[in-house]
Design brief:
The protein is an alpha/beta fold and about 170 residues long. The protein contains 5 helices and 8 strands. The strands form 2 sheets. The protein has a 5-stranded mixed β-sheet, sandwiched between helices. It has a 3-stranded antiparallel β-sheet with strand order 4-3-8. Strand 1, helix 3 and strand 2 form a beta-alpha-beta unit. The protein starts with a helix and ends with a strand. The relative contact order is 0.19.
């Protein structure tokens, strides 16, 4: 009976070790405090749109000045092209929104070569002429690195958001 417990415990230990290794490699536990500090001066109450690769931490810490619906992640997004009945999704939705100056702030992690969409979005930002880099939150051993863009002067939403596309679906985190 005691001998039967040892293989079960060994198997359980192997599963837990594998799960622990998988869990620790799938998440980057670096702090986003630098990004939150940068965004705190850029966000405001109102009908704004923030494109962040990973919005959950800023969304939590900026809850007193933002609404969850204002955050768009790079996971899923649909964009209703202004003045049309055309709803775009995937990279085309991000492209149209970026070229329209839809986002009030865009933040993408530095060194995100493992996220192909981030590279595509950077290309859209660069070629759109609608945004300029306003901050680089440095990557350190304890701090995630971020590039932060804002609209060029004269680009962006009216206070009501009129004349801009409408998000019909965005992945947000509670």
């Amino acid at each position: 009976r005691g001998k039967a417990v040892i293989p079960v415990l060994a198997g359980l230990l192997a599963v837990l070790s594998f799960a622990g290794a998988t869990f620790s490699t799938n998440f980057d536990w670096k702090s986003d405090s630098g990004l939150v500090a940068e965004l705190s001066s850029l966000v405001s109450n109102g009908n704004e749109h923030y494109l962040l690769a990973q919005p959950i931490v800023p969304q939590y810490y900026l809850a007193s000045t933002t609404q969850p619906r204002e955050f768009v992640s790079t996971v899923s997004f649909q964009y209703l092209r202004p003045g049309t009945d055309t709803t775009l999704s995937g990279p085309g939705a991000y492209r149209a929104a970026i070229y329209a100056g839809y986002f009030s702030v865009i933040a993408l992690p530095t060194g995100s070569a493992d996220q192909p969409l981030d590279g595509v979005l950077r290309g859209y930002i660069e070629t759109s002429g609608k945004y300029h880099l306003i901050a680089v939150v440095p990557l350190t051993a304890k701090q995630a690195g971020w590039d932060v863009w804002a609209p060029e002067p004269g680009v962006g939403q009216s206070p009501t958001g009129a004349g801009h596309g409408v998000v019909t679906e965005a992945t947000t985190h509670p």
